[in-house]
Every structure is written in C-alpha cells, then in structure tokens.
Amino acid sequence: MNTLLVTGGAGFIGSNFVRWLIDNTSCDVVVLDKFTYAGNQASLDGLPTKRVRVVTGDVCDAALVDGLVGDVDAVVHFAAESHNDNSLNDPSPFITTNLVGTYTLLQAVRAHDKRYHHISTDEVYGDLALDDPARFTESTPYNPSSPYSATKAGSDLLVRAWVRSFGVRATISNCSNNYGPYQHIEKFIPRQITNVLSGLRPKLYGTGENVRDWIHVDDHNSAVWTILTHGRIGETYLIGADGEKNNREVVEEILRLLGQPDDAYDLVADRAGHDMRYAIDSTKLRTELGWRPKFESFTDGLADTIAWYEANEAWWRPAKDATEAKYAQKGQ
To answer: How many domains are contained in the chain?
Structure first.
C-alpha cells in the first residue's frame, strides 16, 4: 500500500495513527477531517507535508469522498461522533456521521474496489456485570445502550452487509477504551490529568466502580495496521491489552504518578445509562495475526501519557475552561 485515506485523521486516535504510519511505514497519507471540536490541526503539526495531505471535508459528502477514495490504495475509517454524553444530549450528529458517513465510504470503496478497514468500539456489545468472568469476543451479540454505541453497531452491520452483498474488501476492529497523547480533555483520563495539572480535583462519576479495559493508542494503531495488512477479508478482530481497571483505580493511579494523595478527588452525579464493565478478549488477533501490545503495563502507558500532557500544555490549555464549564452545568 502506497497511499492511505484516513478519515477523522485530525482526531485523537486518527492523528496518532497518521503519526504511527509516518514513523513505521513508507505510506503517504491523505487525511479527511471535518474539524469539528474533536478535530485539531495542531494534532498533525510537524508531520512531513510531502507525505501527509490534509483535506477539510465531511465523510457524508459523496462527491468529495468518491474523488479521494479513487486516488488511494486503502481507507481506514476513524471518523465518528464518539462522546457518550454528547449522544445523550443530541443523537442527531451521531446518526449522520456514524451511519450516513459509513454508508458513503462503503459506496466509494465498492465503486473503486479499494481495501477498507472500519474502526469500531467494544461499546457495541453493551456491558458486563462487575462479577462476570466473561469478556467480549468476536461472537458476542450486539447490545448497545446509548445513541453513540447504537450508531456504531449500525455502522458495523453496514460493513458486514457490503462485504457479503457487494464483495467489498473490508475488515472491522472493535477496540477497548483508548488513552494517550492528543486525546480531547473531555474524555476521562485526559480530563483527570489536566485537572491535576490545573490545580483542580479529579471527578469520578457515581462511586467510581465502572470498569473499562484500557489500551494505549499506539497499541491500538499497531493492531489496526496488522489487521489492514494481514487480516482476513470479512473478519472482525477485537483489540485489547488486558487493561481492566475501574475508574477509581485509574484516578488514584493518576494522582500517585503526579505526586498527589490518592484520595484527592470528588464524587459527582453518575452519567445516565453508564455501562458497568467492558472487557476485551483479543485472543483471535494475537493467535491469528501475532499481534502484541507494547504497553503491557497500564501504569507504564499512563506515565507516558501524563508526561505528554505535562509537556504539551499549549495543545490542551485553550479548551480546558470551556470543557470544565460544560461539566459544571451538569454537576459533573
């Protein structure tokens, strides 16, 4: 593959994927991003302009998408509305971007016979009980619980249908919760890190018992490349790094790594429909494609992430006050 189209390439995971490609492959990259609040040009700063071209546009723009897809070898589709709280407040952008956007891309890759990889989430499976020993696998039934996860589930099913009905050369990956550099500070881990760096107390929904299966974004992206280059067409692969932690443990670890008392946080009102536990079984990816995470220790990955936010205040500071004001209006 010489050139890839990366949708949502100015967002958190997408921009890290572009950087990973530049550092680890010889591919050129075309980034398509709408530059909503979640897309940030600064996340792409410093990349070589000879290898990275940035196009401002919408994945729902069929003419634009068709023209871009025709000039690349493969498409990796990160672009999505992805914040659960926002989907509860207004589901409509999630319907448009996550469903119509995916349909638009599928029609383009179908017309041009291009390789397509679809980025999804473990949230399509719903949640697990805290005392349930099970983990999600590729055969777990879909059971989404928010407008966000429902639209991601729908987009996954569109991909499967276009593979079977039209022979589109596609794969899907469902990943656990990502953390790392360039993540918007509305998200859980960067919000707590930047709170401490700003002299604010971290905030925990409810009692902090909700469990997430954490993976460093670089490990997610190395897995995506592995699936794109070696995965079987039509298959789904779950990406996880055995990083189950409850939210309380995550906040306490952030405080410890930043030299603060590990109880220096506040409990706030829980989020509506807050899933209890996610857990990924990535056996298929590891055994079939030989993938392994670099950050097998959550503490090591978290320390790496904290160091990035400490060194890059100019990237996150402009959005901090507005983000906290929105949460304060909801008592969170």
So the answer is: 1
Mean pLDDT of 238-242: 97
Mean pLDDT value of segment 20-24: 98
Whether residue 258 lies inside any domain: the answer is no
Instruction: Compute the mean pLDDT over every residue in the chain, rounded to the nearest whole number.
Output: 95
What percentage of residues in the chain have a pLDDT greater than 70?
A: 100
Question: In this structure, is residue 117 part of a structural domain?
Answer: yes
CATH number at residue 40: 3.40.50.720
Range list of H helices, 38-146: 62-69, 84-89, 92-94, 101-112
Please tell me the distance from the alpha carbon of residue 35 to that of residue 231, in angstroms, as a whole number: 30
Structure tokens belonging to residue 323: 């983000």
- Catalytic positions, written as ranges: 122-123, 148
Strand (E) or helix (H) holding 317: helix 313-329
Residue 55 is classified by DSSP as E
pLDDT of 31-46, one tens digit each? 999 998 889 999 999 9
pTM for this model (two decimals) = 0.95
C-alpha 8/C-alpha 32 separation (Å) is 6
Residue 302 placed within a domain: no
Q: Which of 30, 11, 22 is nearest to 47 (CA)?
A: 22
Per DSSP, the three-state class of 110 is helix
Strand 115-121 to strand 170-175: parallel, antiparallel, or no bridges (unpaired)?
parallel
Q: Which two tokens stand for residue 292?
A: 């392994």
Location of structure tokens 């309380």: 248
